[in-house]
Structure formats: structure tokens, C-alpha cells
Amino acid sequence: MSIAVVQETLTIEHRVLVPPGISGTVTAVSPEGEYRVEDTIAVVSGEQGETRLSLFHRWPVRKGRPYRSKALPNSLLITGQRVIDTLFPIAKGGSVAVPGGFGTGKTILQHALAKWCDAQVIIFIGCGERGNEMTDVLTEFPRIVDPRTGRPLMERTIMIANTSNMPVAAREASIYTGITMAEYYRDMGYHVAVMADSTSRWAEALRELSGRMEELPADEGFPSYLPTRLAEFYERAGMVETLGGREGSVSVIGSVSPPGGDFSEPVTQHSRRFVRGLWVLDRQLANARHYPAVSWLESYSEYVEDLGQWWESKGFPEWKSLRGEIMGLLQQENRLQQVVKLVGPDVLPDSQRIVLETCALFKNAFLQQDSFSPVDMFCPLEKQVKMLKLILLFHERGRRAIQKGATLVAVRGLTICRELMRMRQTVKNDEIEKLDRMAAELDRSMNELEARYERR
Ligand SMILES: Nc1ncnc2c1ncn2[C@@H]1O[C@H](COP(=O)(O)OP(=O)(O)OP(=O)(O)O)[C@@H](O)[C@H]1O
Ligand SMILES: [Mg+2]
After folding, report:
1. In 10 A of CB 411, how many CB atoms?
2. Residue 89 CB less than 6 A away from ligand 1
3. DSSP-assigned letter for residue 11
4. 456 has pLDDT over 80
5. Which domains are assigned to the chain?
6. Span from the CA of 287 to the centroid of ligand 1 (angstroms)
7. Which of 81, 104, 108, 164 to mutate to test the pocket of ligand 1 (most atoms within 8 A of CB)?
8. Which of 1, 123, 181, 403 is the most buried (most CB within 10 A)?
């Protein structure tokens, strides 16, 4: 229950909560006005005696805060990142791990999520990583305007900094502090997203402390309770009905930095077991400057099934089938690429090469997303769906034209196809109708191409 409200920033109303476990009747209330955090603002009398309530209360950070009930996470946490929303979505109240070797783009991805995801409160835990990255957030976020509220992003962001040069003991606590704050805002009825960069540094802190306490080491020197700790952390994510009867959620996105990019190490392996989504960052994609380097073959999201309805309710009933179609093409492409590797692309007929062509278009025009380009850094759902539809339309029409005798070279040579390649940069978020015109133009060009071959 909340007993008072304080306007924390212009976008966040801080609802002062009665600590869990306190019940009874309110016997005194202070009048509205200005108070310090420790001043008494209400008194509750109950079985536990008389309790003075102030603007804050204490909570042991290692213990999850109680709630009334947990619900199935079934609404999308919109991130504006195409590869995530369209292919590997995370639900509000969901948990995802992001494993990726050195320099594959974990931090940039976490920053992009902190900027654009549609949670109301963001908790960013910089755990054992470079200090300058935290400084970047501090200097950048006050300047960026939240598209949903029109206020600086900093007003909804809480940062917990424990950079690599800070004490290890505090590193262990930083993750707990972050997730507890998230639960606290959740209990006020907010949707909160926690970004932890990186959970591997936290695990290393556990290892160091455990070593100093002379505990028996397990896998690679990590303490034997590492899996339990990781499970406890990710378990605190969820969509809940709070003790006060509100709806709130904590979504958790933890990056994992396996040493040497070796995903068989304990932190990656254990994290996998406790999350329902995995965005695997691929070294080869990063080397090829395909960002975000999320692997479409290794990543997964168990939220896809539960989110179909949500997309439908937002006016995109076709999302699930479009997604299924493109995932099918990507797998087909993977098999064809193996043939290409063995015997070269020339042996494939055009009817199969069109699959490679469509996937190349999808990777360049859709999956890649530039976090530094003002047009591309955030992609609304409507644009995502329309772009994907256009790419699948290209596939369908291209295949048909080839069946009717056109060559792949002729299909590829159409002006509209070159425009599709660039659409993520050329179509601004407030001119999405341009994509409809491109679809009409694609149909027209393909009709013309087919007609040319039919006449022969
Ligand atoms: N979405 C993106 N758009 C453009 N460039 C990107 C993107 N993602 C990553 N990069 C590039 O990759 C570089 C490394 O990214 P980042 O620092 O996020 O990697 P990291 O996985 O956090 O590395 P570390 O393991 O050292 O923490 C960035 O400096 C940037 O140049
Ligand atoms: Mg990093």
C-alpha cells in the first residue's frame, strides 16, 4: 500500500510504501507538506504494536521483496531493436541473458535498451566494467529526450556504478542493490527494466570472496553456490500483482562475458538454465561489423508463443506468421550456405539463390541496426512489421518472376530492390507510409519484369 506520494522527477511519482509485513489501523497522519526522509509521516497500530512510517524503509537486498501473485509475462517489452522485438522478443517481467565475447557489443546493446525500451523505470547496473562507459551514460542520458514522455531519459534512469577499479565486495552487492531497487519501484506499480553489465564480473567477485573465505572451489574456481545465486537473481524477474494490488513488473537483461568467448564456461552455462531468452552475440558477425551481432541461429526466446496475442491486440495479427516465415528462410539459407561453401554459388539454380538474396536483404536492411544513427537507433513496431512484410513480398515476387523465366540478376537490378537495401536509413519513423509506397512500387516493377519475360 502506498501512504504518500512525492513527485520524484517529472515522470516518476514516488509512492511511499508501507513496508511488507506491517498491518493494522492508521492512528496518525502528518499533514501534506515538506518532510525529510526520516520524518514520521504516519503511524500504524496493529499486532506488531505501533509502527512509525517514514518516507523510506529498510530491506535486506539479498532477499526478494514479496508480492501477492505472479502472472504469466505476456506483454511485449518494446525495445525498438528489430532483431529483438521481431525475432527474439522479451516480455515485460521476462529474463534474458546476453552472452558475448570481448567487444561484441554487449554494452552498446544494453545502452540501446536502456534508452529505448518502454519500461517506466530503468536500473542500469555497471558491474565491474569500464568506468568511462558509465560516464558516457551520465553525460548522454540527460541530453536524450524520452520519446514517450518528452522528458530527459535520466529522469527515469537509476545507475548503480561499480566499475572495475572499485572494491570487489561492493561488486557483489551491486547486483542485489539493483534488483531490490527494481522490486521497490515495481511495488509502486511500475514496469521496471534491469540491465546488468556484466554478470560475469559479479560471478568473479563471488569467486574472489569465496576464495578469501577459504571455501571449497567448484567449477573453474567458482563457488559451488554460483548456480543458486544466478537462479536467485533471475528468479526475481516477473510480472506481479503487488501486495498493494497494483500491476508491476521487473524485466532482467544480464550480459555475460565469457573469457575467450568460450560459451561452455560455468557462468554462461548456468545463466542459460535460468533465463527464458538468450541473445547470443556472435564474434563473426561483430567482426563483419554486423551490429547488433545477435546470432539468428543460436538465439532464442521462449516468449514468442505468449506474445502472439499481444501483437494481435496492437493491430499486428500477422507478426507470428511473418516471423515464422523469415525464420524458415534463414534456416533454409543456412543449409544452402553449406552447399555454397562446398561447391560455390554457381551450382545453385536461381530459384534457390533467391533465398540467399532475400536473407542477405533481411540481414542488411533489417537485422543490422545502427545504434549511432538518429534515424535507425529506434524502430517502432509498425515500421518493423512493414519492413519485414516488404522483404517477404520481395521474396515471393522474386521467386515468381524467376519461375516465369526472369533471372536473378534482372530481379536484383530493379531500382526498387536497391531502395529496399537502404530503407532502414531512408525511411524516418514519422514517414512510415513511405514503406507502403515502396510495396506498391515493388509490385509494379515485378509485374513489369514478368511481362517482359512472358512476351518472349
Ligand atoms: N549497434 C551497434 N551499432 C554500431 N556499432 C556498434 C553497435 N554495437 C557495437 N558496436 C561497436 O562495437 C564496439 C564494441 O561494443 P561494446 O563496447 O558494446 O562491446 P562489449 O561486448 O561490451 O565489450 P567488452 O567485452 O569489452 O565489454 C563499439 O565500440 C562499437 O564501435
Ligand atoms: Mg562492455
Report:
1. 22
2. no
3. S
4. no
5. 2-54 (2.40.50.100), 69-310 (3.40.50.300), 319-455 (1.10.1140.10)
6. 11
7. 108
8. 123
